[in-house]
């Protein structure tokens, strides 16, 4: 049975990339699937250990989930550190994964910078904890933005290596499940997870430079739309967004080489749940001076209610904490089952 898991780090403000690449997809998936949505607070101490207000940031991600439409009664909304199984399984995966696999991760190389020896050990092992997040629930589907693709491939490799290394123990204990790898049927304990990366905006780009990802760490606030921006700020940022002088073309092929135009079109399509083709059919031949006001209107219509609901929820931290606590209790039950299987498979007394 498909099970959805995804996580968001409580570092810095959420932006439109996080919303369109991840959270908006979570909301759509919850209609048909059982889901776990996790605020990954343990991941947030890998790059920077000491945070000004980690508790407040954690609550604000939970508030964003709920304000966007995730139902915490039907699905599990919780924070990672409150379920000890994440750390426990991550340790096992640290022993399954190879250092070389971690060294190859582009995100590690970017975040560690020039002097890799000075990066925390946690930053290097980051993908191992991420694999544990997902596989602790034996989740099968993981909605994320395009930047997490490499991490999910690694999570798949970890699952596969664990399944291979322990294959006879898994079958002796009667804990194997059958799964298809291409045409081939294999058995293992952990499922081979499937990333869900599609949609019109899997990689939302900076509003100032269409070749750079929209990110929390960009020094220019004009480069991104924050989930906490008010309507005037959203309007100003879209008005100032970089574009080229040509009008919108008839086909997607004609957008090649126009990254800023592609980005704004993708944002419009994702915010309106339409395809990029469909939006082009409406706006072909029009200038950005016409398209931008339409995008402002749409963005404000979608984001303003979420922002105000987030603010309302943040006024009552006790309520958010109660939701997280309830989610953790439910997550723990599932996690404990997996960990008892894993301890048995490995041979921990
Ligand atoms: P994080 O916290 O950096 O980002 C949260 C989600 O937002 C997506 N995202 C984007 N999508 C499109 N365009 C962008 N510009 C953009 N920027 C960010 C990310 O892809 C992500 O889906 N390692 C993860 C958190 C994590 C996780 C997990 C995810 C930890 N454990 C298990 C899935 C499953 C991260 O740092 O996301």
From TrEMBL:
Span(s) of short sequence motif 'HIGH' region: 10-18
First-listed, main subcellular location of the protein, grouped into a coarse class: cytoplasm
PROSITE patterns linked to this entry: AA_TRNA_LIGASE_I
MF (Gene Ontology): tryptophan-tRNA ligase activity
Domain of life assignment: Bacteria
Binding-site list for L-tryptophan: 133
The protein's Enzyme Commission number: 6.1.1.2
Places the protein is found: Cytoplasm
Catalyzed reactions per annotation: tRNA(Trp) + L-tryptophan + ATP = L-tryptophyl-tRNA(Trp) + AMP + diphosphate + H(+)
Keywords: Aminoacyl-tRNA synthetase, ATP-binding, Cytoplasm, Ligase, Nucleotide-binding, Protein biosynthesis
UniProt-annotated binding residues for ATP: 9-11, 17-18, 145-147, 204, 213-217
Motif 'KMSKS' region in this chain: 213-217
Family per similarity comment: Belongs to the class-I aminoacyl-tRNA synthetase family.
HAMAP family: Trp_tRNA_synth_B
Described purpose of this protein according to its UniProt entry: Catalyzes the attachment of tryptophan to tRNA(Trp).
Quaternary assembly: Homodimer.
Protein name, per record: Tryptophan--tRNA ligase
Organism: Hoeflea ulvae
């Amino acid at each position: 049975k498909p099970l959805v898991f995804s996580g968001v780090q409580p570092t810095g403000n959420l932006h439109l990339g996080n919303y369109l690449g991840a959270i908006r997809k979570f909301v759509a998936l919850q209609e048909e699937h059982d889901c776990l949505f996790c605020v990954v607070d343990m991941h947030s101490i890998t790059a920077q250990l000491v945070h000004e207000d980690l508790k407040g940031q954690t609550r604000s991600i939970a508030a964003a989930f709920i304000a966007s439409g995730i139902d915490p009664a039907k699905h599990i909304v919780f924070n990672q550190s409150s379920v000890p199984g994440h750390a426990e399984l991550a340790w096992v995966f640290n022993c399954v994964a190879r250092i070389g696999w971690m060294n190859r991760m582009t995100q590690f190389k970017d975040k560690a910078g020039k002097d890799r020896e000075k990066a925390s050990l946690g930053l290097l092992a980051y993908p191992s904890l991420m694999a544990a997040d997902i596989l602790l629930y034996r989740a099968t589907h993981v909605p994320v933005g395009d930047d997490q693709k490499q991490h999910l491939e690694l999570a798949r490799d970890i699952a596969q290596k664990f399944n291979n290394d322990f294959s006879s123990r898994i079958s002796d204990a009667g804990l194997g499940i059958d799964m298809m790898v291409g045409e081939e049927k294999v058995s293992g304990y952990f499922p081979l997870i499937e990333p869900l990366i599609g949609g019109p905006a899997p990689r939302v780009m900076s509003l100032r430079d269409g070749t750079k990802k929209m990110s929390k760490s960009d020094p220019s606030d004009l480069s991104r739309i924050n989930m906490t921006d008010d309507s005037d700020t959203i309007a100003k940022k879209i008005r100032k967004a970089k574009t080229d002088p040509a009008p919108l073309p008839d086909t997607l092929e004609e957008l090649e080489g126009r990254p800023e135009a592609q980005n704004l079109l993708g944002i419009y399509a994702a915010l309106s749940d339409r395809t990029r083709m469909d939006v082009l059919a409406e706006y072909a031949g029009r200038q950005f001076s016409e398209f931008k006001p339409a995008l402002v209107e749409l963005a404000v219509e979608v984001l303003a209610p979420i922002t105000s609901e987030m603010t309302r929820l943040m006024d009552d931290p006790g309520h958010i904490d109660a939701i997280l606590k309830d989610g953790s209790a439910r997550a723990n039950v599932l996690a404990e089952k997996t960990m008892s299987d894993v301890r048995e498979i490995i041979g921990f007394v």
